[in-house]
Amino acid sequence: SLFEQRISVIIMGRYTGTLHKLCEQGGYYQNNHNKRKNAWTHVLQYLELNTVSDPRAWKPPFESPLPPYTEASDELENELLDEQGPKKEETPLRISVRIAPSQIIAALCHVCPEAAKCPDTKGRLPLHWVCKRPSSDPDSERVFQIVVQTYPEALLHRDDAGRTPLHYLFWYHAHTRSARLVQ
């Protein structure tokens, strides 16, 4: 199977971009629930295979599918902070915050909270992108909470156009009058 091929690549030696490709595949199956779920399961399995236990590691303030006191291996951390993807500026977190289930965002933020601080070429943080998620998505609120708990200062960060994530939140969600997201 395709997953077994990916696992053999992981075991025999990771190549740059594996996590990026897995995150991108999660977005390819927007209209097929089973394929989408399987794609995100592969991301989580990849993270589990490439993390290490460390009693000094950061314990996130949110629920994570990974065990407490887990951190990325050095290779995985480099991959989590590497900007690749279709636009050559995407980190796995920035790809995932637009479409991934909250448990994937929790796992990514758990093993590499620094990724929440990485702006794109227009100065937007992952939180700016979270605020553009549709309010009809049941995970939007939880993803917002996870990213804010990971890097609360992101709420005040202005992109190159001078907009904070809250500007995006009101811009994209004013029509829904969703007070829950604003809280």
Query: How many E-type strands?
Result: 2
Mean pLDDT across residues: 84
Total of DSSP H or I helical runs spanning 4+ residues:
10
Structural class, from secondary structure content?
Answer: mainly alpha
Q: Report the principal-axis shape.
A: globular
> Biggest β-sheet, characterized?
2 strands, antiparallel
**Spatial arrangement of strands, main beta sheet:** 1-2
Q: Compute the CA-based radius of gyration.
A: 16 Å
In terms of DSSP E residues, the strand content is under 5%
SSE topology string: HHHEEHHHHHHH
Could you tell me how far the N terminus lies from the C terminus, measured between alpha carbons in angstroms? 44 Å
Low-confidence stretches: 7-15
Instruction: Characterize the quaternary organization of these chains.
Output: single chain
How helix-rich are the residues, as a percent range?
A: 40-55%
Walk me through this protein's architecture.
The chain has a two-stranded antiparallel sheet with strand order 1-2. The protein is built from ten helices and two strands, in the order αααββααααααα. Helix 2 packs antiparallel against helix 3. The longest helix has 17 residues. The chain is globular. The chain is mainly alpha-helical and 183 residues long.
